[in-house]
Amino acid sequence: MEATQASYDSPVNADASLIRSRYRTLAQLAAERDENAADWQLLIEQGRLPAASYELDGEDWFPPTYFAMLDEAGSVDDLRAHFEGRFAIASDETGALAGPDELDEAWDEYLSGAWGRILFDPTPESAVQSNRLAGSIAELLAEPAPEDPAWGRRLTARVDALAVLLREGCAQDRANAEPHPWDLWVVAPRRDYAEVFKTFTFHSDGAD
């Protein structure tokens, strides 16, 4: 998808190339809207808009769809309510919990800028769906049955569906030595059950 293993062999150059090609500075985003970047920076510092997803050469970098959620909400004041509404609906549709604690945690993750690093589409719907798929994959891996065609189909479908939602990330994302979601839920299953994935090479929404 976004990066190859070769990218991680030269992390500084690879990170710079990936970030510059797939993200935007706040000045670039503001210029596209004919607005003042300093006004948006103040709102970010106040914790009312998401922080940058990356820092490179002293500049902050944001996903190109950074303002999409705000535009749909209509205003900064309405952003959290809009966010929570979408998160709750997406959770209801998948049977996930969306109580006060879950909403607070999701909002904090969104504001941290982490979703812009991990998700191609940093929205509540994508976050809920990716969490659901990762949970399903974890359950399947906890009781592996590679000889069972039904298990193989379910694992392959879920991993392939999750791979569409997640970004591969770059070396900077792996600097803290914590498992990256892409490595944990996409790379590892495809590596450990390579024969299963050779057999069931199709894409699905994981509903099987």
Verbal overview:
The protein is mainly α. The chain has one domain (5-199). Helices cover 61% and strands 4% of the residues. It contains 12 helices and 3 strands, in the order H-H-E-H-H-E-E-H-H-H-H-H-H-H-H. Helix 3 crosses helix 4 (37-45) and helix 6 runs parallel beside helix 9 (124-142). Residues 1-11 and 203-208 have low confidence and may be disordered.
- Kindly state the percentage of residues in helix: 55-70%
Order of strands across the widest beta sheet?
1-3-2
The radius of gyration computed from the alpha-carbon positions, rounded to a whole number of angstroms, is 18 Å
Average of the residue pLDDT scores? 90
* Major sheet: 3 strands, antiparallel
Uncertain segments: 1-11, 203-208
Q: SSE order in H/E notation? A: HHEHHEEHHHHHHHH
Computed structural class = mainly alpha
What overall geometry do the principal axes of the alpha carbons give?
globular
Strand content: under 5%
Helix segment tally: 12
The count of β-strands is 3
N-end to C-end Cα span? 24 Å
Integer tally of domains:
1
